[in-house]
Each structure stands twice: as structure tokens, then as C-alpha cells.
Amino acid sequence: MNETLIKLLLQQSDGGNPALLPGAMAKPFFGPALDPLLSSKILVELPPAVEWPVCDDCECACATRPILFVDGKPIAACGLDRASDTPLEDHDLRTFEIDIEALIRAIGVSSGFPQQQHREIRQGVWFLGTVAEQHAVFITPMRSVVDDPTLHRALHAAAPQGTATLLGPSVNGASWTRFADAKISYVVAEEAFTDDGFKLDLGRLLPVSTKPRLILERGSRRATFDGRGTVLSQRAFELAVLLCKAVLEGRVVVTHDEIEKIIFSGQSADRLPSSDAIRDLRKQLGPLLKGNRTTNSIKNLIQNKPSVGYVLNLAASEILIL
Ligand SMILES: [Zn+2]
What we know:
single chain, Arc Repressor Mutant, subunit A, 3 domains
């Protein structure tokens, strides 16, 4: 299964029940990726849509537009102006409901946690099992659950030895620190999967003992290095994530090709050679290293491997992506 399908399912479960996956989002996965989820009831297809939102600037007083079929093709029909009709595709009419409990159970089973241990410890938070000497692993796809200031007490109470990793949605640095202060390792769930469908990388769930040096916050594009922070441009941030992921995945070197393909895909108007993109990232990160005793050269932090690519000189344990 494609890695991005699990990310999509978790993201769509962010608000809790009902968690819906619109057909337009599911479309790239129709067939071999989606069918097993339908047969195992992780996804349940709802009846096809018969209504559509009204046109943006419509004068009609209707709450919705009816979906009509013209020559077998669906359209969202405006009550006032045929020119405002919106042509639809068949997949636009489809909607799938995600059974969050079943999704979480599938993640637990695929990752090798015993099914009988799996339980919901409070609404929206599941205990999956333990790794390394009874270190508990919990998961929630829901942001509101993570923001609840009483959550860490519930996790401690439900953990066999009181130590825990919580897998959850992307959070900011302040939330991460709140969990770290409570001795809970917070891991962004999307970042913790292997390439193998719903299987978690158990190595990523171990207690984090060292303080991360480089923190990247997706929500704000903020990069913090040894306590100093700055907001990166979109392109520089994506490039920083790419370099970090290579370290986390044990690949180390990021090639020129990878940089040009992954970072600039679909932005042909804005293409840059990888060397220029790296120069730009170094320029934005450089000020964070001023006066740093351990790492004072940005060229050593992001090191050039001539004719191959670039290496981020940090250990996996020193990197945190939120
Ligand atoms: Zn209209």
C-alpha cells in the first residue's frame, strides 16, 4: 500500500467521528490500495451524494444544489443560472467513512502488537502495546485530544511502567515540550510508518533520551537549532525536511536528483539547481549557528559530497520533525 494513504486516513481522522474521506481524495487509491480497507470495514462507503454546496456568489436562497445527470454525467445544478452549473466526476459523488477504531486496530496488528492488549484508554486515545522493557505506546489521530492538559496523567496511569510514547498529529514545539516535560516521547504518527502499509517503525517509538538539536515544525515552518529558531521559506523548509528524513531513514546522503525531483516537483516555474536551493537553506539556517560551540559552520552541518549530493551531519536522535 502507498505510504501516503495511511497519512491521508490519519489526517482525515483528525477531528474525530465522523471521519470522512471524500472520493476526490480517495481516487488515487481506488483499486488494490483501497479495496482491502473496504473489505476489512476500515472504510465504509456511504450512499452517493445527491446534493452539492451552492455556488460561491449565488443569489439563490437554496441551502444546497441538487446533483442532476446530463448525458449520464453528474452536474451540480444552479437554481438560477445554468452557466453556474458545476460539472462533476463520478468519484466526486463517492464518500467513505473511516472507522477510526478499526484503523487503529489495523495499525496495532500490522506493527506486531498483541491484539488483546489493544484498548481505548479514554475517548480517542488507544493503548497499542509496549516496546523495550514495558515502555507503553499510545496513539491518537485527534488534535483536540492532544491539546487536553490532563492527557499526560491518563497516559502515565495507563502505562505499565509509567513511561510512554504518544503517536499523534503534527504539533508545535510548545506542545512537544509539554509532553517531554512530563517524560512522554511525542512522535508525529505520520513520520513513524515504514513503507509497508500500516506497519510502524518500532525503532521510532523508543523513549527519546537525548534532547533534539534540530526541530522542524510543519505547522509554522519553524526551524530551531540548539534553542535558536527562525521561520524558513516554504522551499527551504521542505528541503530541510528532506535532509532530516534521509538521516531518520538511515540513507544519509540526499542526491542532487532527489532534491530537484522531490522538492521542486510541480513547481516548474520556480526550478532551481539543487546547489542554489542548498545555498538558500544554508543562508536561512546560518544565523542559528552563531556562537554555537558544537556546530559553528553551516557548511559542516549541511555538508557537500562532491558530485553526489548533501549530508546533514546530525544523528537521528538529534532530529525532531513535528
Ligand atoms: Zn447558483
